[in-house]
Amino acid sequence: MVQLATTPASAVGRGGEATGIISAMTSPATQVSNPFRLAGRVALVTGAGSPDGIGRAIARLFAAAGAAVALVDQDAAGAEANAAAIGDRALGAFADVTRPDSVAEAVTLIEQRLGPVDILLNNAGITRSTPLWETSLEEFDTVLAINLRGGFVCLQAVLPGMMRRGYGRIIWLSSIAGKQGGGVFGTAHYAASKAGVIGLCQSAARQLGPYGITSNAIAPGLVLTGLLPRTGGAEMADRLRQDVERTVPLRRAATAEDVANAALFLASEAASYVTGEIVDVNGGAYFD
Ligand SMILES: NC(=O)c1ccc[n+]([C@@H]2O[C@H](COP(=O)([O-])OP(=O)(O)OC[C@H]3O[C@@H](n4cnc5c(N)ncnc54)[C@H](O)[C@@H]3O)[C@@H](O)[C@H]2O)c1
Question: Least packed by Cβ within 10 Å: which of 66, 116, 119, 233?
């Protein structure tokens, strides 16, 4: 039986409300054995530097669940600001996931400051709204280098330690786009990168299972972060959101916290026999 602490500041949403799983976890009245605790674990979240992104939400939730969290991003100042808002057991640092030397440097720093990485969240990603017939090879390569190869670079950086210790949790950010030939923008390079993430995730699940390492992905539909407005403009993002609110069975887009809740499940002991799974967080927009 685990006696849970009262709600830490890091579990409190922008409006002051406790969010998602954490509100149930941290209720003083809760006295149940809690498989969602991550105490003693170290999590590395890539792409965790944006002010309203999925990476930030995951880092906040994991910290509230007891993990030490490293937030890395090519936007070092953003990662540091998000880490500072979480508190002492969070570290913000620069890492460009396209550059193995940069990722290795960040992992060395994290291991010195927080300890060996138990949980890798491959979240860094970009999207583009360019139609297939106008997409340059350069843009294609950029999207693939960050969204697909970047996750592999990060996996390589933490894998030797995980294999030695016989424990690891790898969680990948795929997308509904990787399952249905494109997401809200419908672009080919983004869809290809996110379908590739599913292949990598499932191959890792097969090959790393015997080492005590699970590998799972999350495939969100539209999530209300700055990604779309920054990429396609506020007006286009608003139109896409309204389409989703009209057509998706649950009649709303996802919040970053909806995605973080799925990540917490996959990182936790509750998912110890789950690997190679692609968890849809899309409000019923697509089933397979
Ligand atoms: N927002 C959505 O609707 C949605 C839907 C499905 C999947 N996703 C995926 O979720 C992930 C997070 O998206 P988000 O909506 O939070 O976007 P976001 O733009 O808020 O966060 C992405 C972060 O990745 C960082 N990044 C980009 N290139 C990088 C690099 N080379 N090295 C390190 N960091 C880099 C950016 O600086 C940014 O902070 C992405 O992989 C995205 O494809 C998002």
Answer: 233
